[in-house]
Amino acid sequence: MSNWSEMELVEFRRRVESKLGLLEEKLAEYREITKPIPPENAIGRVSRMDAINNRSVNEAALRTAEKQKADLLRALERLNDHKFGLCHACGERIPIGRILLVPGATRCVSCSV
Q1: How confident is the model at residue 29, as a pLDDT?
Q2: 72: exposed, middle or buried (Cβ count in 10 Å: 0-12, 13-18, 19+)
Q3: What is the pLDDT of residue 28?
Q4: Cα three-residue angle 28-33-36, rounded to 5 degrees
Q5: Considering only CA atoms, which of 64, 72, 97 is closest in space to residue 18?
Q6: Tens of pLDDT along the chain (113 residues)?
Q7: Distance (Å, rounded) from C-alpha 9 to C-alpha 75?
Q8: Full-prediction pTM beyond 0.85?
Q9: Domain coordinates in residue numbering, the chain
Q10: What are the angstrom distances between the C-alpha of 47 and each of 31, 40, 52, 93?
Q11: What pLDDT was estimated at residue 1?
Q12: What phi-psi label fits residue 102: left (phi over 0), alpha (psi between -120 and 50 degrees) or beta?
């Protein structure tokens, strides 16, 4: 195991699972608002252009949220790795907040610069 206490690992798992729940809600919303706009909808040319532009922005947000979900799931898988939460460069602990913000982080802030 890493040098994290069992309580810290439980807290990390709880926070990741909570974040995954919120992401699932966002993903469902993004999937709904990125559905194609049927051409038979009479919304006007300018409104259609706005809708297409907004859809592109929301599709980017959907891809970002899907990547965050995948990163969080990988972080959960790495919990049993003895190097989990340790910087691959210097060996120091990576703060739990950093791993929650950047679940794929394998380096501390100092070493990632």
Answers
A1: 94
A2: buried
A3: 95
A4: 120
A5: 72
A6: 456 788 888 888 888 899 999 999 999 999 998 887 666 665 666 676 777 788 889 899 999 999 989 988 988 888 878 788 889 999 998 888 888 788 778 899 999 88
A7: 11
A8: no
A9: 6-80
A10: 20, 13, 9, 51
A11: 41
A12: beta
Structure tokens at 7: 């309580």
Greatest Cα pair distance, the chain, in angstroms, is 61
Residues in the chain: 113
Single-letter residue type at 109? V
Q: Which residues contact residue 20 at a Cβ distance below 8 angstroms, ignoring those fewer than 6 apart?
A: 69, 72, 73
Which residue do the tokens 């206490």 mark?
A: 5
> How far apart are alpha carbons 30 and 21 in whole angstroms?
14
